[in-house]
Amino acid sequence: MSLYQRLNEVNQPAGGEKPGATGPGSGSRRDPVLDELRQRVHAHLIEELGPILYDKRLGEDDLRRRVHEQLLQTLQAERAPLSAADKAQLIQDVSDDILGYGPIDKLLKEEAVTEVMVNGPSTVFVERNGRIEKDAATFVDSEHLRRIIDKIVSEVGRRIDESTPMVDARLPDGSRVNAIISPLAIGGPYLTIRKFATDPLQVDDLIRFGSINAHAARFLQACIVGKLNVLVSGGTGTGKTTMLNVLSSFIPSDERIVTIEDAKELQLHQDHVLSLEARPPNIEGRGEVTIRDLVKNSLRMRPDRIVIGECRSGEALDMLQAMNTGHDGSLTTLHSNSPRDALSRLETLVLMAGFDLPVRAIREQVSSAVDLIVQLSRLRDGTRRVTHIAEVQGMEGDVITLQDIFLFDFGMGVDEHGKFRGHLKATGVRPKFTEKLADLGIRLGPEVFSLEGGRRAVGRG
How far apart are CA 409 and CA 379, in angstroms? Predict the structure, then answer.
């Protein structure tokens, strides 16, 4: 089936629905009378129930019951001639607007959806099973979308308006939210939601999905327990945070862990975890607390491990210094396309700290601080795979030397469905730090690094 045919199917209303029905499945065929009625009923409910909607003492079931009762009363007062199907759809739409997140509420509850991208009121895309596709959900107009954005950001004490037209926030379940409105968003507002897994993936899930093999997972676990400093690298949407979450789960439960993030996403189950979250400036431009501020503060909190959600600025220098001054076993992520690019980007981030440091001094810091780079990629077939696990060996002249321990085999091609046949394979090289791990009582057998061992591990995964 062609892409054109698939898009046509996506845009067709579901069977049995009326052309004028609203909500998911309705595509662009909206009934303006129903939309106007929905807006009127919505406004009336806000006016009647305003204080109750934000009363933390009221349980979710009680709140839903009160909204439903008031909604039925309002519809009776309207005396609008509605069919049973239209009335049920109207009740559902208004309930989603008041209690949830409007037309995208169902998408946020759908397990197969990992990302929701709202490109203005009439266009919604979702990512399902690694593939981006257009959804039939639409908003009434820009004001309707703005109300949903305002609701999301107000729940976490953030604000968005013409003076601050961009915002990063999160839903109560931890899902990452970015919103941008006019005058910056032409044709917007735009809303992007990266969903937070209710049941976070574990290492066994990654092995089952083929993202990694069993021997590579055993190797990474040994590196984390052995307190090596690990950098997780990859592009947008490649699964860096998921991998960071999995690696953090290997940290022994008797260690004190400080996590530092822009918006809290990591889900660590150890007992001794302190989670810190950055804060943007207020409307007066004051009160900002950056990732770098939190990294500096964390050094005074007696951490055994520091886990930074993402290095994207001058905090990279403070992170390297922490790794070099007794905080072994620290973890972070950054955006790059390969392990070599990750080192170059790390140099650039260190220079953003504002110090005029020689490049060689920065590279020496990086080579002595970072032990391992885990590279992730999202392949053309929609899967997310670990493509490199590389050891940082040190300096040769002015160049940091890397040694691949595991590599993804792209040479196996693709099958008839467009899926990559390849998998992660050991290169046969034992990293230099295996002696350090052995001194700590962590021994890795030769099968972990043998070429045949890599193939057998994938077969079992």
Answer: 12
Give dist(CA 306, CA 295) in Å, integer.
Answer: 8
Name 169's bridge partners.
Answer: 177
Q: What angle do CA 367, 369, 370 make, to 5 degrees?
A: 75
The 10s digit of each residue's pLDDT in 166-180 is 988 888 887 889 999
Cα–Cα separations (whole angstroms), residue 211 to 147, 306, 456: 39, 25, 15
Give residues with Cβ within 8 angstroms of 144, minimum separation 6.
Answer: 39, 97, 102, 121
Sign of the dihedral defined by the CA atoms of residues 271, 329, 346, 407, in that order: negative
- For 91-120, the pLDDT digits (tens) are 777 777 777 788 898 899 898 898 999 999
What do you get for the CA distance between the two ends of the chain, in Å? 31
Answer whether 304's CB lies under 8 Å from 229's CB: no
Inter-residue contact 185 to 206 (CB < 8 Å):
no
The model carries a pTM of 0.76
Per-residue tokens: 249: 């789960």
Q: Does domain 1-16+101-197 have CATH number 1.25.40.10?
A: no
Q: What share of the chain has pLDDT > 70, as a percent?
A: 86
Alpha carbon 415 to its chain centroid, in Å, reads 29
* Three-state helix/strand/coil letters over 387-435: EEEEEEEEEECCEEEEEEEEEECHHHCECCCCCECCCEEECCCCCCCHH
Q: How many beta carbons lie within 10 A of that of residue 276, not counting itself?
A: 21
Q: Domain 203-460 has what CATH class?
A: alpha beta
pLDDT at 224: 95
Can you give the three-state secondary structure of 27-73, one letter per residue? CCCCCHHHHHHHHHHHHHHHHHHHHHHCCCCCCHHHHHHHHHHHHHH
**Cα–Cα distance measured from residue 141 to residue 153, given in angstroms and rounded to the nearest whole number:** 19
Over residues 140-157, the pLDDT tens digits come to 788 889 988 988 888 777
**Whole-angstrom distance, CA of residue 89 vs CA of residue 76:** 15
What is the arithmetic mean of pLDDT over 265-275? 89
The pLDDT assigned to 453 comes to 42
